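Methods: example folding runs. The two proteins below were folded one after another, and each record is reproduced exactly as written to the output file, sequence line first and structure-token line second.
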Amino acid sequence: MKILMLLESNFPPDTRVENEINVLLERGHEVHMACVKTKRDSQEKKFGKTIIHRMGLNELARKSSVAALSFPLYFQVWRKFVQQLMDSHHFDAIHVHDLQLARIGYEMKKRYGVQFVLDLHENWPALLKISEHTKSFLGSFLFSEKQWKNYERKYVRLADKVIVVVEEAKERIQSLGVAPDKIYVVSNTQNLEEFNFEIPAKEHDKVVFTYAGGITFHRGLQYVLKAAAQLDALDFEIRIVGAGRFLDKLQELAKALSIEQKVHFLGWQNRDALLKIVFESDVALIPHIKSAHTDSTIPHKLFQYLYAEKPILASNCCPIERILKETGGGWTYSFDDVNELAMIMQQIIQKEYQLKDFANGKEAVLTKYNWNVDKANLLEVYQ
């Protein structure tokens, strides 16, 4: 089968999309990628055996997607680009990553008679609702949650197949009137064949908590720092790896709470350096703020931490809490309850828990939460 994927960003990198492409190529499908070109992208027109078609789109045009339902110029640009590809290459299926370009996918289905697969990495209406750029004066004017929810409801029903990342997302899409046999769970699990990472020996005596990822308000790190401030007399360290627009405010908060000596901001790190920092710590943090978005998505790093037998301290986002309870891989707390979080951290620091008792996720990853399982679900989509 000849498949055209649509991605509303530059490519590569994207771990999930790369995994999906490799699986489809292994099965003998031909895969093309239509995506956005940025100044940083090379002129390379292939990713392995995947043919890349890049469309120049300036930053303003890219950000205008939030208002695409009111001002359809964004769709017009993509429609012209994709139609040219469809006319030139005669695809059998169009695979749309995330909700934004679902309209284009459906239009190509109607015009060319191709299969339309909608691959929802996120709960897009909920993500837009909590995003900082929709809370600005202009953003609040351009963004309509109701419009995006109606758009989603329409196109998940019109798609031939819908892919989601977690069971909670499948339940949500079913509630929009989509038959369960049309929805496939392809999660953000780890490809174990590509995860040959040696766990470093611990090089410190104090208890170390580490967060790795983007740094925004909705990652919930402000609650971690406020909890840490209650434990100032204890011997521990917090390492924060990553970058983002909320970094300056977090650094200011650490200073205001007088915990700069316990909180270390390590900046952006490449994959191997990041994993080394996390794996040589005692506890991995996933403190995301609970919302309709985080209750129906799942981070890749959860499965990496479980596989590495790293105890996880996480907020009570539904999929994360479910998996940690199932696997015994860590602790959860109410996302904004600073006192509860501080209490668990104190118990960990004072060794009231044996960390090895909360490092039980590897077996679940080996048998259930891994890419070999999820890729079988993806292949069902194209049977």
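Second run, written to the same file directly after the first:
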Amino acid sequence: MATITKISAQKRPGRYNIFLDGEYAFAVDEGVLVQFALAKGQELTPDQIARIQEQDNFRHAYNIAVNYLAHQLRTRHEIWAKLEEKEVPPAYIKQVAAELTEQGYLDDHAYRDSFVRTQMVTTENGPTIIERKLREKGISPELANREAITDIFTPAEQLATLAKLIAKQRNHYRRNSAREQERKIRQHLYTKGFAGDLITQAMDAADFTPDPEEEADALAAQGAKYWRRYASKGAAVQKRKTKQMLYQKGFDLGAIDTWIAEQETEDA
């Protein structure tokens, strides 16, 4: 048996030094101090001391996890990784995870739902990218899958997001031909993680029928760029390369020929 002869507070808040038989023995968390009702004059057996220290180790790990959770929701994987980073033994990590789960602070199902809703509001990501991000955070395939995500991010909501993306990208590519706009925008939507059938539905609704005036302005802008670029190559190469580049950019061949003829007239 050992007797507690002194209990003193450390400079670090919430930590206390325990002295047994006049000698420093160990330190404990304030919660452990209260849990075991430690007080000066109390006698402790070796078994009691071992249990006190085990509980203090658990409290240390628990406090790390709670502080980590204080900033935002975390997944079980993130909590485990954080505690491993702090060199907490696996047995205590399991205890902490179980305690936090029971208290409702650690819930991968709720995390997934919250994450998907946040992505819907703050990003332009589709279900595929959202699923990948959830997997990266350690959410299991049973929770992070397309079906579960689209139960929250419904097709109707995805179409609304796609419509906004299309409008934004059309403005970005306004100097391109209607055909080139459609190609680039479709490609961009795929990279954002949306399904092909929804992309097609959204693109059809957007209507990429060329506006003659806008198409003519885009052709003139693109054509002038290539006409200048190949001016030093000689008239034949300038004409051929400009025509080739404009056709690759989706402009009508007849409109290209007309524009080049006008340039040749001006240059004559």
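Comment on the second run: The CA atoms of residues 127 and 146 lie 6 Å apart.
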